[in-house]
Amino acid sequence: MKKNCQRGFSLLELMASLAIVSLVSAALFQSMAAWMRLSARASAAADQSLTAIAGQQMFDRAVGELTFAWPEETASRFIGASDGFSGLSAAALQGIYPRLAAIQVSLERPSDTQRGRIVYQSGATNWTLQEFDGTASLSYLGADGDWRANWPPSTNPEPGPFADAAFFETPQLPLAIRVSFSDGDTAKAWIADIYSDPRIPQRPRDLQ
What we know:
Elements: H1 11-64, E1 66-67, E2 79-81, E3 84-93, E4 98-108, E5 116-122, E6 125-132, E7 136-141, E8 147-148, E9 176-183, E10 186-193
Antiparallel strand pairs: 1-3, 2-3, 3-4, 4-5, 5-6, 7-8, 7-9, 9-10
């Protein structure tokens, strides 16, 4: 009669198996950790990109709907400088629905502890449109194609070869607004056109 002998694992074989399993587990753990770090960086980059797109869209909309103030409403007239501008916009976001209201876009310079910010304000609404590390400035496009650091300019922009600007007042609004900023080694710029009708709407009392 044959003996049914079953040979078990020796201690050496068991230790070798455990070593192999440990090496495979360590490799899998390192791969998983690297994948998680890569996923976190990709998620952060996507969030940052979406935030920048949303900020630029808000800037485009608010600037695009800038409108004229009545002549007597001097406090509501558009004023632009290299570090910010203020005026009336038909797309001012206060609450749920856009409406005509005063807006302000300003540049907050970076400090030793915080990044710089492009800030949108309208009433109680205060939003950061974009953060930046380096320099930033605003400029304003005249009818002559020149970008200016301030608006209204000291001289009326002439749109053509003739000196027609001498017979007209300086426009209350520029044609477009540009904000230039640097984030790390990358230089960026947002340019938004102003779509308002250049004519100030008539009021009933103006027709009397």
